[in-house]
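fyi for ur records
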Amino acid sequence: MSSFALVNPNWDFAGSTYFGCREPHTPLELLFAAQKIRARGGKALVVDAQTDGLTIGEAQARVAEFDPDFLVIPSAPSYLFWRCPPPELRVPREWLTGMDGRATKVLIGPHSSATPRAAMRKTGADVVIKGESEDALASLASEPWELIDGVCFRDSSGREHYSAGQAVVDMSTLSALDFSDYSVERHWHRHHVFNQGNGRGAEVEFARGCPWNCTFCNKQLFRNKFRERDVNEVLIEIDRLISRGVDYIYFIDEIFGVGKNVLRLLEEIARRDVRIGFQTRIDLWDEQKLDLLGRAHTISIECGIESITEEGRDELNKNCRMSTERISQLLIYARQRIPWVQANLILTEHDHRDEIRSWQDRMKAEGVWVSEPVPMYPFPGSPLYLQTFGAAPDDEAWERAHHHYTATFEPRGYSDIQEQRPAALETLEQQTPR
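which gave:
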């Protein structure tokens, strides 16, 4: 019987271009992997060092007592941020090194998926997994590694083996998490909730992937094809969280609102004493469906608008069939039913600052919060990377993307939620986290 320690590091983002949320989030990728491992007869320990505020030494003490055969570390903080991860591998490297022992070291995440050779060599991992890791991890204990999709590894002679395929999970096999070994009560963060009082939040996954192929989106090498979980299993999971004191659920789906079963899910949530939030496209909704969101106690939605012009949305391959005026009407209608409605923008050559400001002013007058246009990072594996550099990611892809991003936007300014003087990737990966 093989044992796995699955550790979410206590993340540190000093000097990084990372612009995701820095609060702790439920490490669903590790909890689902633990579920799969146990279903095959193995043992699994999940250590959430970020939520529990652990140092590497404190986490190592927990892991050493468990004495695992495999030590698993992700390269981004939660599935929610695999699509916009910290470019640097500083934290995963330090945690894999600092928790050294007899265990086989496994790295999962977007870096393993896009540049497996570089990820293995930078972190010292024995195994890296391309794609969605739950099934692949559970298979490590019982199947030849060279036969497992997505598994890349270094054998006893030091020879490296790289899978041509990617690991993909059948979402119908993700039954409800029971959270029996997870400190739900220590997780207070309510993702993307502003000025809505107090409460306790948790993250849930209903669907994975997205049917669109927007230029800037980094999901092609993992979580790409759209799939839903069973609604009943998701509801069981939500009820378990509610019973543990959770009153806010944030769906980590790349795009909430696409699937054929989402309306049924929302009708069921409307019967429960819980509030919800998520990311979506406003062109997935109409007035009737937005009314349902209000009944389902939705308090926060984040809508990817990207450009206020049809030409800009076409440039980003949004495949949006709505006019800007119809988008505006739906955002305003949504805000009349939902306390926080956010419209996100990306600056394109088709958007002029004065026109953006005018549209922002109109939306803000109606209570819709609109972001400043954010710069696009050419994440390795995204269509933007291929468009920018003309080739698939290689071992220098993250350095190339980082140099391009900082050279382009240092004179023009970064997003207001990023470090304004980010360090070079090479510098970051030589540092020890605080």
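The mean pLDDT is 95. thats all i got for now
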